[in-house]
Amino acid sequence: MRHLLLVGLSWVWAQQQCGTDFLLERLSEVERAAQEALEAQYRAAFLNRTNFPARQAQECPESRYIIPVVVHIIHSGWGQPDSLPAARVLTQIEQLFNDYRRRPYTKGYGSGVDAEIEFSLATKAPNGSPHSGITYTHYRDAGLASPRVNMTGSQANARTLKTNVTWPKDKYLNIWVVREICQNSDNCPEPDVLGFATLPGMSQEEQGVVVSSAYFGNTSGGQTTTHENGHYLNLYHTFQGDFAPAGCTGLSVSTCLTQGDRVCDTPPSRIPNYGNARRQNTCQEDIPILGGDAPDQVRNFMDYLSDPSLDLFTQGQVFRMHNALENASNRRTLWQSSNLQATGTGPYGRVKANFAIKGCEQPPCYVCPGQPIELVSYSWGQPFTFRWEIRQGATAVATSTNGPCATLQAPNTPGTYDVYLRVQNFVASAETTYRNFLIVRDPQQVASYPFAEGFEGGTFPPQGWIVVNPDYQLRNSVITWDRYSMPEGGGFGQSNACARLRHHRYYNKGQADYLISPPIAIPTSAQNPGVAFEVYYRAVRWSGTISGVGTSHPLLYADTLAVYVSEDCGSTWAKIYEEGGEALDVTGSAIQALNSSYPTEVFPPEGPNNQWVRKAVRLGDQYKGKTILLRIESRTGMGNNLYLDNVRVADNLQPVGSLLVPEKIHVSVAPNPAQAETFLLINGAAGNKVRCKLLTLSGQLIWGSVFTVTEDSYSMPLPIAELAAGVYIVEVEIGGRRWVQRLLR
Fold first, then answer.
1. What's the CA gap between 615 and 621, in Å, rounded?
2. Which of 62, 235, 722, 740 has the most crowded Cβ, counting Cβ within 10 A?
3. CA–CA separation, 281 vs 551, rounded Å?
4. Do residues 211 and 194 make contact, with C-beta atoms less than 8 angstroms apart?
5. Where on the phi/psi map is residue 216: left (φ > 0), alpha (ψ -120 to 50), or beta?
6. Rounded distance, CA 557 to CA 607, Å?
7. How many helices (H) does the chain have, and how many strands (E)?
8. How far apart are CA 309 and CA 46, in angstroms?
9. Which of left, alpha, beta for 134 (phi over 0: left; psi -120 to 50: alpha)?
10. Is-contact 714 682, C-beta < 8 A?
């Protein structure tokens, strides 16, 4: 158990933790020089990212790097709890895949990115003979006096273990699973370390990961190994030692590559965090890639929260891991094809079939008859043969051998279908069937026009509506769109009910939840068709003190609301509206709660009221004669509850009073990376004043301009001709909203 002790006037952490920082404190001069050389190379690569092109969005998301793994179980006797069965090891390997590949329909599908890294359990021993990739050694045979590994102190024996029980460290990631780990054998009444790992610059003899058996392959988590493998791939803690106890205020784009975790898109945290996720802002940074200051990213795998709350790596962390795999000599050998063949991993090892439907973030997946369905494989073992089938019972109604990404046509007959995938690599095959995975809508069940939904019915979602909760596997997964009602009236006007999303209780910043309407047929005779709805929302600007954590600096906790429309049954979506924070607040100004506790969650006024705000957006004539879907999306900033009522699709809808909701504004820079000419492109902002800045990565102003957009599709050249090669920031502000984008020169 992790627990907190109060000693005197200071907080002392007495809970189990990661031991990697203990190793960092004891680096030899040779190790420190090797690690710093890799850091310098990483900084140079980040500032000139041409060596590591980002995967294009249209590419199929296969594993880019395969890392062979051997797991050594160090136990106290057969049948003892620390003599883990092979099933626990395979569970952990699957959890690593889910976390590093951000696999849909698992806990690993958080608000981060796909790391494109796969850990593959070896099927060949170093001598080439077949092997399970799991070894079992009694602690005495491993050279230990007890089933405990001591990292430091007079009885330090981590090196003894790694010397006596090991496979070649330039060919395998060795993971040792032991009953107990202590930082210091001379002062360790209870085991205080969950695991530790070596960074690439550390001694080759020490390379690998050590994990406590109680935290390895847990069905409820297993993120200790995810965390330690992150260290092995050169990630630091998000609260890395530069921040405590001095603090981290003032961290900027010029220092984020050299301080803290050396990653610029992970908001720094002053201290490690334990337990469940929470909102906090323990550092005040100014980094454009984060939009300025940002709350701590406590769900990051490289923090200390309990396993069920951890769910993400950032793009910057992924770049750092890829850079280590490409440039650290003791990491680059692992994923080479010759080594995969020698160790029986990747395409020469175990294979398991997993997949997802693109655009479907929570099954069952709804489609229309004949609609193209994009199937994406998330299979272990780099298979190269695929067979996809849509089945009803034992009958395959659609088949494809394309893969790992394939497109099948949905059946023409409405109903519920299974989806089947069979895969094969050089040595093995596997198959899986997702039952009742696909639902083909009945085209006759179309809502009439004009359309209205007030959420007054006793069931939620209403008939024909769909709630999509992408993080349904994560802790707090019950938080998504639901129905709110009060006997005295809690909706708009005299309505008793409305739809609600409880951002006040949501601690997964950036996660979106969707409310998808039934198909709505808009007649060709429609006059100025549009979408309207009422909103009740209050943003929060908060600072205060968190017990055991310290100061949480002032920050606007702003949630957003967006509306999308689809005319192809959800294959593609066009955003027609988006507002958030104080622009969405019914008063136009956030609740101010500075130097106090976070305010209680807001509820709409009871009884008949007029404090809601009406929003209205024109659809445009292009949707006349079409059947559309609406997707109402709210993305959490961990702020306050959002209430939605009285959704209409009808003619000549008008906003209340002087409120005018603009069409969606889109800002981009193209081409990027820059060529002879690069343009700032602005769509949907005609008549608006624009402020544009071109900055260095350190925030120095190179060029700025203020102008008024005269056309709906507007472009202007950026002054890049004299810029040196590197990374720059383009910052655009329109109507109080800001867009920040990197420009590669």
1. 19
2. 235
3. 8
4. yes
5. beta
6. 28
7. 8, 41
8. 29
9. beta
10. yes
Residue with tokens 């955003």: 575
- C-alpha 239/C-alpha 244 separation (Å) is 8
How many whole angstroms separate alpha carbon 39 and alpha carbon 478?
41
Angstrom distance (rounded) from CA 364 to CA 416: 9
294-298 contacts: CB < 8 A, separation 24 or more?
294/267, 294/555, 295/267, 295/509, 295/555, 295/557, 295/638, 296/238, 296/267, 296/268, 296/269, 297/238, 297/266, 297/267, 297/269, 297/509, 298/269, 298/273, 298/507
- Residue at 107: amino acid letter: K
What's 54's DSSP letter? P
Per-residue pLDDT tens digits for 592-645 = 999 999 999 999 988 666 789 999 988 888 899 999 999 999 999 999 999 999
Residue 181 half-sphere exposure toward CB, CA atoms < 13 A: 27
Query: Per residue in 322-365, pLDDT tens?
Result: 999 999 999 999 999 999 999 999 999 999 999 999 999 999 99
Distance CA 460, CA 561 (A): 20
> Cβ(710)–Cβ(645) under 8 Å?
no
- First-residue to last-residue Cα distance in the chain: 50
| Backbone Cα Rg of the chain | 27
- Structure tokens of 513? 């939840």
Q: How open is the CA angle 225-226-227, to the nearest 5 degrees?
A: 90
State the CB neighbour count (10 A cutoff) for residue 370.
12
The contacts of residue 468 (CB under 8 Å, 6+ apart) are: 361, 362, 480, 513, 514, 515, 516
Helix axes 223-232, 86-100, angle to 10 degrees: 60
- The alpha carbon of residue 192 and the mean position of all alpha carbons in its chain are separated, in whole angstroms, by 29
In angstroms, the Cα distances linking 261 to 209, 257, 310, 636, 683 are 19, 8, 17, 25, 37
Amino acid identity, position 79: G
Conformation bin of residue 699: beta by default, left when phi > 0, alpha when psi is -120 to 50: left
The pLDDT confidence band at residue 247, using thresholds 50, 70 and 90, is low
Pairing assessment for the beta strands 385-392 and 415-424 based on DSSP bridges: antiparallel
